Amino acid sequence: MTTLNTQFVYRPHRLSSDLTLEALLDQMPAALPFLVRMGFTPLANPLMRERFGPHVTVRQAAETLPINLERLLTDLERLANTDGMPADLQNAANHRTAPEIARGK
Q: Is the entire prediction scored with pTM above 0.70?
């Protein structure tokens, strides 16, 4: 008889920096408030998401702010693997400045 491992947690593939913002938000709608708090404020506007989301990658968006890309991807992966936004990510997104983000803090 086979028993199921109830400890199994699905982990999605590593997020790619080449993913468009539209694809990211389709896969992870919970990322929208986090991205807006991180400085991607045009995403708060549905018309801007519709216009630029299919054409702008995560990498391109991070470079315009500037935001440390690896740190952003790591934070998005953590967000994808939790229910809701972890408190440390919410606080970090609310209080980071562009220079701190660029340095990876």
A: no
